[in-house]
Amino acid sequence: RVRIRNLTIYRPIIYGNTAYILSDKEREKNATNPSLKDHTHRWTVAVRSAASAPDSDQVGGADDLSHFIRRVTFKLHDTYPNPSRVIDKAPFEVTETGWGEFEVQIRIQFVAEAAEKTMTLFHHLKLHPWTITGEAEVPPLDVAIKAGPVHSWQYDEVVFNDPYSNFLTMLTQH
Ligand code: SLL
């Protein structure tokens, strides 16, 4: 295997979350379930491509990251059952419901050909809209419903230095 020296190739990604308030109907349905009764939001945390046009109203592209990402592990708060969620194929995302914000650890493992070590990112799962008062308090439900879905995304770049020639071929064939 041959490394291509002095070459850097990067792939733009975005990671973060979208959150929606559960409908009245959903909250009614959850009311009788002790483990779901306090849940107020449905959220999706994801790693997506920033290289392609977004799909419909989704944040980030559905462009396949699988040619360089092998696995993404989302480590959720310990209040969730099986908090380590391992996703082995695109889309690399987890959808859950809950009531609270917390820090999600996102571990990105690359395909073997990349010979690159795991990349770890942290994302603060955001459920509550920023309010004009700037108060740290959780806004009341009716205020949050009016504000609409919450989006919290960050841009980053995965950088491959001196890539192996076979990996470079894999990356650039797409
Ligand atoms: C705290 N940062 O104040 C928060 C923790 C935990 C969030 C937030 C669902 C848990 C479940 C959920 O929203 N957990 O019902 O399974 O400590």
Automatic annotation (TrEMBL):
Annotated Gene Ontology cellular components are: cytoplasm; Swr1 complex
Q: Where does the UniProt entry say this protein principally localizes?
A: nucleus
Provide this UniProt record's keywords sorted from A to Z: Activator, Chromatin regulator, Coiled coil, Cytoplasm, DNA damage, DNA repair, Nucleus, Transcription, Transcription regulation
Q: Which GO BP terms sit in this record?
A: chromatin organization; DNA repair; regulation of DNA-templated transcription
Q: Which residues form the YEATS domain?
A: 3-174
Q: Where in the cell is it found?
A: Nucleus; Cytoplasm
Q: To which protein family does this belong?
A: Belongs to the YAF9 family.
Record function comment: Component of the SWR1 complex which mediates the ATP-dependent exchange of histone H2A for an H2A variant leading to transcriptional regulation of selected genes by chromatin remodeling. Component of the NuA4 histone acetyltransferase complex which is involved in transcriptional activation of selected genes principally by acetylation of nucleosomal histones H4 and H2A. The NuA4 complex is also involved in DNA repair. Yaf9 may also be required for viability in conditions in which the structural integrity of the spindle is compromised.
Instruction: Present the record's domain note.
Output: The coiled-coil domain is required for assembly into the NuA4 complex.
Assembly: Component of the SWR1 chromatin-remodeling complex and of the NuA4 histone acetyltransferase complex.
According to UniProt, the name of this protein is Protein AF-9 homolog
- Species name: Panaeolus cyanescens
Gene name tied to this protein: YAF9
Q: Which residues of the full protein are shown?
A: 4 to 177 of 258
